UniProtKB/TrEMBL annotation:
Region annotation (Disordered) ranges: 420-439
Compositional bias segments (type: Basic and acidic residues): 425-439
Record-annotated membrane-spanning stretches: 21-41, 93-112, 132-151, 163-183, 220-239, 251-272, 287-305, 326-347, 386-407
Organism domain of life: Eukaryota
InterPro entries xrefs: MFS, MFS_trans_sf, UNC-93-like_regulator
GO molecular function ontology, one term from the record: transmembrane transporter activity
Cellular component, GO, one term: membrane
Organism: Pleurotus eryngii
Location within or outside the cell: Membrane
Protein's name in the database: MFS general substrate transporter
Topological relation to the membrane, as annotated: Multi-pass membrane protein
């Protein structure tokens, strides 16, 4: 699929069901029910189980499969069900099986989601549409967290969450496949600027050739380290909650912390749609600010970790240690989601072709999952917290200069690693060639 520009550049009235906003709402709704509810369980730390080590091992196995394979949604239901059975009966083999199956089958959603949210929206609304997608994805952990908090708020002890928690989450997950049916075919999508999304047919050989041209390109390779480490922190933060927070405080975290994701997505989304700054200025400013915030948070993490290791508390929301420890978790989610939103916006500036964007976002999602697999693998046993902190800081510092080599090109030059085959498209995508148009 490629995006072909009409001769007229005026805003047009579109049918709400075919609008780009509705398509983003559908994608967000699907992720609300499936990965979003999975994230609600993850926000409890260790999937709500009593100890984190085996849960982290299964998460590592699931993310490893996501790195290699692309597919769907029902396996997330199986994983939630396996958490339920493991908590009830101690069936650890099914928990591992559910995680691996989930990893094998959720990659396709990631591959499809990326090009839709980066290429469908009109250019001057792309940041806000990314923010809307982020809000819907993270409304699930907020609402799921509210359910979890309501069910578990009376459990003033450490250990596993109530079994009813899993049943409530599984019920919401079941709605995902039906919401997915509302997504329009790309040829039916209507944009306000009159730009049509044109279906571009490709065969296996052409697809493989184009995919390799994209993933082996210098700019993609330079972005890979930052994507690898973008969610690396999650296993450490989740384990920290399981080690030091009691059940009802973990449930409170599951409810409140995802609000930081929503705020972070909207803040950076509206900034990236700012018309008073050039694309180059927005790319560089957001990158510099977010990288500084990420590194500052790891300094704060080291301080909090040292304090927790010295006192080894079991923290309730009434404990004196709660405020300073909780203050670490919310900013992490805010800054991390702001960073990911800006990275998807960056990718959207690198191509107008839907299929090329699917190669890019799918590959980078795979790299992201590889990072999570490594991170959860490190925390699958009772290793020192300082190992995780060292890996996170080291990888992040290493990734920054490589990513900067791509960021500094945004708004300055066009990206032409791949040109769609003229024989396979009705109209070629019109990418801006001049620096003036890009800026």
């Amino acid at each position: 699929m490629s995006i072909a520009k009409d001769e007229e550049h005026v805003l047009r009235k579109v049918h709400w069901f075919r609008s780009t906003t509705f398509q983003v709402l559908v994608v967000g709704g699907v992720f609300f029910c499936a990965p979003g509810m999975y994230n609600a369980l993850s926000a409890l730390g260790a999937g709500g189980l009593a100890t984190p080590w085996y849960a982290n091992a299964t998460a590592a196995a699931g993310y490893d499969r996501s790195t290699h394979v692309s597919s769907g949604m029902y396996a997330l239901l199986r994983y939630a069900g396996s958490l339920y059975l493991n908590s009830k009966n101690g069936t650890q083999w099914f928990l591992m099986f559910g995680s691996i199956l989930s990893g094998i089958t959720d990659g396709l959603m990631y591959a499809v989601e990326g090009p839709i949210i980066t290429s469908y929206p009109e250019p001057d609304r792309r940041g806000r549409m990314l923010a809307l997608w982020v809000a819907l994805r993270n409304a699930a952990p907020v609402i799921g967290g509210a359910i979890i908090f309501g069910i578990n708020s009376s459990i003033n002890a450490s250990g596993a969450v109530s079994l009813n928690t899993y049943l409530a989450i599984i019920g919401i997950m079941c709605a995902g496949p039906f919401i997915a049916l509302l997504l329009s075919h790309p040829s039916q999508v209507q944009r306000k600027d009159g730009v049509a999304i044109v279906f571009r047919k490709t065969g296996w050989l052409l697809s493989l050739s184009e995919w390799w041209s994209v993933v082996a390109s210098k700019n993609m390779l330079l972005l890979c380290p930052l994507f690898f480490t973008s969610w690396f922190y999650g296993s450490y933060i989740g384990t920290l909650q399981t080690q030091y927070f009691n059940v009802r405080t973990r449930a409170l975290c599951a409810f409140v912390i995802p609000m930081g994701d929503i705020v972070g997505g909207f803040m950076v989304g509206y900034f990236l749609d700012n018309k008073r700054m050039s694309i180059k200025q927005k790319a560089r400013t957001s990158f510099a600010f977010l990288m500084t915030c990420n590194l500052a948070l790891w300094i704060w993490t080291a301080i909090i970790t040292k304090q927790l290791e010295d006192s080894k508390p079991i923290i309730d929301w009434t404990s004196p240690e709660f405020g300073r420890t909780f203050s670490l978790f919310l900013p992490f989610d805010l800054v991390t989601m702001a960073t990911q939103t800006s990275l998807f916006w960056i990718i959207g500036q690198m191509s107008n072709d839907f299929i090329v964007l699917s190669y890019m976002t799918g590959t980078l999602r795979g790299v992201e999952c590889a990072g999570q697999a490594v991170a959860y693998g490190i925390k699958s046993s009772d290793t020192t917290d300082w190992l995780s902190i060292g890996f996170n800081v080291g990888l992040f510092v290493l990734a920054i200069p490589f990513a900067w080599m791509v960021i500094r090109k945004i708004g300055v030059q066009s990206f032409k690693e791949i040109e769609p085959d003229a024989a396979s498209t009705d109209e070629k995508s019109e990418a801006p060639d001049s620096k003036e148009e890009l800026a």
